[in-house]
Amino acid sequence: MGKITFYEDKTFQGRCYECSGDCADLHSYFNRCNSVRVDSGCWMLYERPNYLGHQYFLKTGEYPEYQKWMGFNDCIKSCRIIPQQRGGHKIKIYEKEDFRGQMLDVMEDCSAVFDLFKYHDINSCNVLEGHWVFYEQPNYKGRQYYLKPGEYKRFSDWGSQSARVSSFRRVPDVC
Fold it and tell me: Mind listing the domains of the chain with CATH numbers?
């Protein structure tokens, strides 16, 4: 089980709320979120209620201001703990929607998708094992998207507005 604490002000000041599981609507607990302390587990934070909007991956550690977790603003309205997984990781990435076009099986982190796949975009994928985070920029930077096991026929299925994926990593390897 994980534990995360949200603070309204920077450097862990102001009103706070402690959470140990998924929460679809944090709005009633605090007005803004300027710092976060993750005591255990890996978490995805979401800009809007019901796990929508910009996503932010956080592992155990301290984040004294929202820029430290690559936040665009101080708005966090829902969170989800990422389950710990034992075993392998496997994802199939596709050039086109609906699992069409060039396909590649991947079991390791990738800091530069173009170097591996020769495409800048991933339009669909099938997460066969493990939990993954896609990043819009190389070297695990930019907007982030959490993918649990399942089929994603188009990039909007993982919450993105574009097919641009420039890096990705396995979640338990970074927790």
Answer: 3-82 (2.60.20.10), 90-174 (2.60.20.10)
